[in-house]
């Protein structure tokens, strides 16, 4: 009497539907299904249990995913603090040299201001003498006193000297201001996003910061500039990379134990990327050390003299944040060269 889809149990569930036939031989109904209904119920029970497990696993997966997202955010925060800490550590190594560079013009300014103060006091005393003469006597007394005071205070010398003192003072203050500007350009703690930046300006600021310490260590730095384009990059992070490479090169030169230390920086503009070489004539590295210099916490320095993170962070900044490369080659006893390649099109 019927041939087609048969529904068992909950009519809303197509899982309980099978194809079959229904006959009426006399007073009875005969139902013939293509599947064993009992077996089907057993299978459906197993499927339902599996669905329940899948649902629980999905909930657990969502919970673990959220926990991983929180851990990732904490890891990013920790990494950011670690990068900042390494930057401050690098600056700390150069603090003595920078303090010397600031103290020199400040001492010059202090001396000039002191001299200007003494000259002003002499001029003020002369003015008060003239004022008293005017109040006491006639024009003859004033004229004679003015001539005597002019010779006493050497007014012509003061006129020339004051101009030189003011000019020198302004020059010293400008020098201090330049050092502070270089520090601010290097730090740029509030500029961690990608922006179009002058790569040469970043490198020059870093050299200005590291220069005094390198000079005190007897290291000569030479730079060969090409026509460098403005790049989309993170200038604060790249400044840290430049400083890390300069510090490592200076330490390699110091380990050599001879004079005439040299660091050569070469910048080249290519078709698709900008390349910077940092070459030193230091002690060089054997192959087993060269292969590990970018590993976290790896250092050949004595305990307490290095974190082993400078080159690791530099590699991460160049490769992960800028899509570039940071490679090294070295010859023991001859020196090392670290090469940065930065793509012109930053798509990160």
What does it look like?
The chain is of the alpha+beta class. Among the domains are: 96-184; 194-343, Heat Shock Protein 90, CATH 3.30.565.10. The protein is 58% helix and 18% strand. The protein contains 8 helices and 10 strands. The strands form 3 sheets. A 5-stranded mixed sheet has the order 5-7-8-10-9. A 3-stranded antiparallel sheet has the order 1-2-3, with no helix packed on it. Strand 2 (17-23) and strand 3 (30-33) form a beta hairpin. The longest helix has 57 residues, at 37-93. The model has no long low-confidence stretch (mean pLDDT 79).
CATH class of the domain at 194-343: Alpha Beta
The main sheet comes to:
5 strands, mixed
Q: What is the assigned CATH homologous superfamily of the domain at 194-343? A: Histidine kinase-like ATPase, C-terminal domain
Count up the helices.
Answer: 8
Q: Could you spell the SSE succession in H and E letters?
A: EEEHHHHEHEEHEEHHEE
Distance between the amino and carboxyl termini: 69 Å
Describe the strand arrangement of the main beta sheet, using strand numbers: 5-7-8-10-9
Q: Helix fraction? A: 55-70%
Shape: elongated
Q: Approximately how much beta-strand content do the residues carry? A: 15-25%
Rg for CA atoms:
40 Å
* Helix-and-strand structural type: alpha+beta
- Under CATH, the topology of the domain at 194-343 is which? Heat Shock Protein 90
- Name the CATH architecture of the domain at 194-343: 2-Layer Sandwich
Number of strands: 10
Low-confidence stretches: none
Average per-residue pLDDT, rounded, comes to 79
Keywords: Coiled coil, Kinase, Phosphoprotein, Transferase
Pfam family, one: HATPase_c
InterPro entries: HATPase_C_sf (IPR036890), HATPase_dom (IPR003594), His_kinase_dom (IPR005467), HisK_dim/P_dom (IPR003661), HisK_dim/P_sf (IPR036097), Sig_transdc_His_kin-like_C (IPR004358)
EC number: 2.7.13.3
